[in-house]
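Entry 14. Structure prediction run on the chain below.
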Amino acid sequence: MSGTDEPELGRGLSLEMASKMYVKSLIVSDEARGRVLFEADIGSLIGLSSVDGRVLEVRGTNGTLRVDLTDEELEAMLNKARSKLP
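Output returned:
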C-alpha cells in the first residue's frame, strides 16, 4: 500500500457472463476495505487461450473469465505446480 488509503492496483481480471441467470451470488461488503464475492456458473469449458501473450482467457458456455497473466507467468506457475506432484 502507498501512503494513501487507496489500494494499489495489481493484476486485473474480468468475468463476463452471458446472462444474469448464471450468477449465483454477488456480495459486496459495506466496509471500506470489505470483501467482494462473485460466484457464477461459467458452464462447460469450451476454450483456453492467451490474448496478446498477456491475458489468460477461459471461455465457457455461460461466460468468459480473463486474468492479466503473461504466458511466461502461467508457464512458471504450471511448472511449479507440476514439481509438487508425487
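The chain is about 15% helix and 40% strand.
Filed with the rest of this week's runs.
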